[in-house]
Design a protein that fits this description.
Elements: E1 13-18, E2 22-27, E3 30-35, H1 47-51, E4 54-57, E5 60-63, E6 68-71, H2 72-76
Antiparallel strand pairs: 1-2, 2-3, 4-5, 5-6
Length: 86
């Protein structure tokens, strides 16, 4: 019997919670919270689109279904990046 699973390994990034205030992102044991106030692009998006996140390079996250890309720096310090698309 062969117990190996073909294909890619699981991602190092995942959305762990979606609430009425925002979403939680887990990457390599670091939990980050993205509030809808600071990251309004996620508000009113389908759950499937929010859950579909990739780490395209270290600490650079991309949601292909909604064409959003953010870095860990932006998530950790949104006050340094005050321009918000509406």
């Amino acid at each position: 019997m062969n117990l190996s699973t073909p294909g890619k390994t699981t991602s190092d990034v995942e959305v762990t919670n979606i609430s009425n205030r925002g979403l939680s992102l887990l990457c390599r044991s670091k939990q980050m919270f993205l509030s809808y106030e600071q990251f309004p692009w996620f508000l009113n998006q389908p759950v499937k689109a929010i859950l579909n996140v990739e780490e395209v390079s270290p600490s650079h996250f991309y949601w292909p279904d909604i064409d959003i890309d953010l870095t860990e720096e932006i998530i950790d310090h949104p006050e340094r990046y005050p321009l918000l698309a509406r």
